[in-house]
Amino acid sequence: LGALLWAPWRALDGAPLAELSGDQDFQLFLHKNLEFTRKIKGDVDALQHAVCETFQLCKEEELLLVRQDLGIPQAPLEQCHRRTFQADACFSQIRNGLRTYQGSLAAVLKLLPAHAGLVETLQLDAANLSSNIQQQMEDLGLATVTYPTEGPGPLPTFSSSFRHQVGGFFILANFQRFLETAYRALRHLARL
């Protein structure tokens, strides 16, 4: 799995971002948000442990059949992998994905009321990281998309409490993978 996750990053070695790499404000943004992303990943990990301990849902491979039935999507980040890497497209996908997971965490909040403080902090952190990326894109003059201020979209619906538990498990698992990819993209940009 590690090799599969790492393989797309070798293609970024020649990414054309020289115009951004020397900007000290951009480098500061990257370093601060690398730490912020790492903190968010740690919080998602803590919630994954809570789902494992509370519901004994710990191994993804045991739940794959139910996953297919639930249709819980993974926010795309292919623009952060491609050989023709574009900072604006990657940042837009990261920002969009953060908004998606921010909304999906409401299902986790209902699932883990004892961890409401952590889930709410995670939702706020996802919103803040999304705002940081939006602001940096505007500061750099990168193409941005303005989204309506209404809610993040419909919550997933689950027909049973078991499906809700599995759905929460996969929301967190998908969010963790998303954050790992976003972290690698930010780290790659910081090294240029």
TrEMBL record:
GO terms for cellular component: extracellular region. Its main location: secreted. One of its GO terms (biological process) is immune response. The keyword Secreted applies. It comes from the Eukaryota. Keywords: Disulfide bond, Glycoprotein, Growth factor, Secreted. PROSITE patterns: INTERLEUKIN_6 (PS00254). One of its GO terms (molecular function) is granulocyte colony-stimulating factor receptor binding. It is found in: Secreted. Belongs to the IL-6 superfamily. This is MGF factor. It comes from Alca torda (Razorbill). The gene is Mgf.
